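Readers of this paper often ask what the protein records in our data store actually look like. An entry from our holdings is shown next, in its original layout:
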Amino acid sequence: MSIGVLSLLSLLPIISVAVFLVILRWPASRAMPLCYLVALILAITVWQVPFIRVMAASLNGLIDAIELIYIIFGAILLLNTLQQSGAIQSIRQGFSNITPDRRIQVIIIAWLFGSFIEGSAGFGTPAAVVVPLMVGLGFPAMAAVVAGMIIQSTPVSFGALGTPMLTGVYTGLFGDAETLAYAQGLGLEWLDFIAFIAAKVAILHAAAGTFIPLILVSSMTYFFGKNRSIADGLKVWKFALFAALAMTVPYLIVAQTLGPEFPSLFGGLIGLAIVVSAARAGFLMPKDDEIWDFEPRENWDSHWIGTIEIKEKPIEGGSMNLAKAWSPYILVAALLVLTRMPDLPFNAMLRGEFSTFTISGIFGTTIGQSIQPFYTPATLFVVASLITYFIHNMDMRSYAVAWKTSAKTMLSAGAALVFTVPMVQVFLNSDGGASGYDQMPIVLAEGVAALAGTAWPYFATFIGGLGAFVAGSNTVSNMMFSLFQFGVGERIAADPTWIVALQAVGGAAGNVICVHNVVAASAVVGLIGREGEVIRKTLLVFIYYALFTGSIGYGIINFASDGFLNSGFIIAATIIALFIGIIIRHGTLRKSVVAN
């Protein structure tokens, strides 16, 4: 069978996701079983994968789904604990004291705090933390989920202390003789070679990330504002760009000097300190008559509202002080950092022999995995909730309500995930069949590469994003495609390290539209069944990110032969000019008063 036909067939599971979930607007609980069936039929009939291997991959996916459901439970439990203790009321008031403007709040919470959480934990944890927090502060559930997905782009390549680079790219390239020889030719040891690629990844991310807060606020005012206008978001363009640079500048410096472990963590933390201090001082803040807020809840579209409703609970003796109210989130952040630092003993304790349960050779196949129940962020959320019970002096009845409510929401999320993740595993484990074909993602990438030729840098980011869209992980996408991307770079006589960097950046951007991340983020605020709506709202963000960074990558790769006037730099400059034009057109108009 020709590579073109095989590529089209391997695209069918992804097309089915787009058709059922995005175009027909089916809920994931209804769409994903059919998508799973498409992947299963292809694996058995075309790829001729043994049925027992398909079942092993499916069971492996179910195990992953259970871990995701556990994370959802932990995130909701922490939110419900804060609701029952009255902390949410104090946190909401604390943000109102900085500013009641929702545009500023979403930048601080989603972009900066979310980047810090991504840097420390990764693997979708920011959505589990910041999405329910925003709902607790009065954001519509849909707005919170969209914001939580949009920011899972720039910080992702260096999430979980650089795991997508240090595990994803490292593992994806390791063991290949040509890649090792290339690294040695540069005079670099293997880890230094990965850091060399990571520095290029940071350059691309810093360029694209500069506009993410602007896109974030514009998306919020366009989709969820009274006027349905991007102009309302662009009115804070100065603050948005300031907040972007407050994160991306230290992020870039850290990537170039300290390596891939800390860019997102330090970038988010430093940016948070700079921007919150500036906001308190009134720097670039909207005036009192320019404050933007959502309409009253009764005017919200019913699709914006999740089943989790956060109500303020009166606190005996007055409101809780802000430090005490924030202490559970500070505790979560501290636990994430302490348990993810490889030089500290906690990491080894939670991932050691006695804390790891290995499932190998499922049904006699090569498929298996290791489970680390104490290392997962879910356990840290539960621990933080238990400690909160004591430090917030809660009564047992209120705490029991938090557990009961969280359990109900967790169960409703399971219906979609028990088919979503097994579909991913069947797709990824489609090699080893009697047909002799590579796994579906590689076949698809090879088909695109055959068509693209020297224009491949434009497509490299989209392939990386496709891997993350399907697998739900930048790390897995990098493991799957890094060596392939390196080889394509050599075949088209381009610097292969820049091609791998484009893969890593695209893989990060793919998290914006990743199905099971959207399912998980939606579930933590009770927005089950609206996953397709979220993806429709974030799809353009992914396209911008992949196209902009791909264009810059193409421009850099072809700079020596074509100079600045090559198509890559021209497209990138056009995108920047478009942003500037939109700001001039909408962001500098006479500011209108938006009702509180």
Q: What stands out?
A: The CA atoms of residues 442 and 547 lie 21 Å apart. Residues 51-85 form the longest helix (35 residues). Confidence is low (pLDDT under 50) at residues 589-596.
